[in-house]
Design a protein that fits this description.
Blueprint (H helix, E strand, L loop, with lengths): L3 E10 L2 E11 L4 E5 L6 H8 L7 E6 L2 E2 L7 H5 L2 E4 L11 H11 L5 H14 L15 H14 L4 E5 L7 H14 L5 E4 L3 H7 L2 E6 L2 E6 L1 H6 L4 H14 L3
Parallel strand pairs: 3-8, 3-9, 6-7, 7-8
Antiparallel strand pairs: 1-2, 1-4, 4-5, 9-10
Length: 247
């Protein structure tokens, strides 16, 4: 049994068909990276997995249970899925520590001191223990995103979804976030939408190339970067290499 199974997921907004039947599986501890041009439904796919959006058709299974089943308790399911957003989505009126611990208290019912201890452990893990009492306004973009990652980790999810976690960051801050993510690889199951090809090449177990709402090709980085089977994959990776420079 796979930890995550996405089966034939379709999603439209009005006339616009964004996802046209996406299927893939993921196992515990794997890192999968989804790449593709803007507007190809990558973020929509994550939202369908997290049930922020309901798929029109298809199923999503997590740990052997169908989470797209309407009779399931969506809030219970969301506890098992961490989400790291493009724009951080931190509470500005709370310290870094409280941003991480509040979910443990409110959602998991953990008492305040224990939640605080766990939050500190996760802030240490992302290299921000010293910033625990700072408010988001005093943190850099890279630090904010690392708080976002600590917040997701603290809930002890089955999987963490990352929606272009570095695209809102200044170039010099991207590295610190990717370093943290690299450190999690193999320990945490991660599904990452990103344009960071160096990360995809070095960290992913599998790369999924999406375009126009379908999976064009998927495979391990060695295959995808050196001998993709589909011409369109080759063109896309060639363009990206020119645009972002090879690592």
């Amino acid at each position: 049994m796979h930890m995550l199974e996405v089966k034939d997921v379709h999603k439209s907004y009005g006339e616009l068909e964004v996802l046209k039947g996406i299927s893939f599986t993921m196992d515990k501890g794997e890192t999968k990276v989804i790449i593709g041009t803007s507007g190809t439904g990558k973020s929509t796919l994550l939202r369908c997995i997290n049930q922020l959006d309901q798929p029109d058709q298809g199923e999503v299974w997590l740990d052997g249970e169908e989470i797209t089943d309407p009779s399931k308790d969506i809030n219970k399911i969301r506890q098992k899925i961490g989400f790291v957003f493009q724009e951080f989505n931190l509470f500005n009126h709370l310290t870094a520590l409280r941003n991480v611990s509040i979910g443990l208290e409110k959602v998991k019912g953990i008492e305040k001191e224990k939640a605080k201890e766990r939050a500190l452990v996760e802030l240490r893990r992302v290299g921000l223990e010293d910033q625990a009492n700072q408010y988001p306004a005093k943190l850099s973009g890279g630090q904010k995103q690392r708080v976002g990652i600590a917040r997701a980790l603290a809930m002890d999810p089955s999987i963490i979804l990352f929606d272009e976690p570095t695209s809102a960051l200044d170039p010099e801050l991207i590295g610190e976030v990717l370093e943290v993510m690299k450190g999690l690889a193999g320990k945490v199951s991660m599904l990452v939408v990103t344009h960071e090809m160096g990360f995809a090449r070095n960290v992913a177990d599998e790369i999924i190339f999406m375009e126009n709402g379908v999976v064009v090709e998927s495979g391990p980085p060695t295959q995808m970067f050196t001998s993709p089977k589909v011409k369109r994959t080759k063109e896309f990776l060639g363009k990206i290499a020119t645009l972002y420079g090879e690592e």
